[in-house]
Design a protein that fits this description.
- It is a single chain.
- It contains 4 helices and 9 strands; from the N terminus they run βαββαββαββαββ.
- The chain is α+β, with helices and mostly antiparallel strands.
- Strands 5, 6, 7, 8 and 9 form a 5-stranded antiparallel β-sheet that branches. It has a 4-stranded antiparallel β-sheet with strand order 2-3-1-4.
- A hairpin with a 5-residue loop joins strand 2 and strand 3.
Length: 174
Amino acid sequence: MADTTTQTYKKVFQLLVDNTSGTLSRISGLFSRRGYNIESITAGVTADPRFTRITIVTVGDDVILDQIEKQVAKLVDVRDIHELKPNESVYRELALVKVRANAEQRQQIIAVADVFRCKIIDVGTESLIIEITGNQDKIEAFLRLLDGYEILELARTGLAGLGRGIENVVYLDE
């Protein structure tokens, strides 16, 4: 009997697109129309204000991930798309975590935050807001250590990334 299971992978795509209204909507629309999932998406203007850098994290098998890359590349506003491979790139994410903390819990939570080089950015009588920056594994590990405390709110930015070195820098002329 043939093995019908397909291996799924997480892939990080970096796009350079025209900085025009509707571009992000067209890209996310392509994903939703085809039933592809976006695990994370971040977007921001580049050093050249005519262009936006978008980082998309998605999951699928080899065929689906290849289709995603080809279909996104065909969109009019997309100037460049390439994979940010883990061993050739730097990834970061920001998370803000609001934790319920009374006076006796506060020092314990701050001690855990210090181990992860977090910043305490707000202290209230009943809560702390902690800022953590790093790769997704670091953020997940920090959240696991907070398991015994009540997380009141959590906001995550999604993955941002850049390729290492200058070999894959894309220069757009216009």
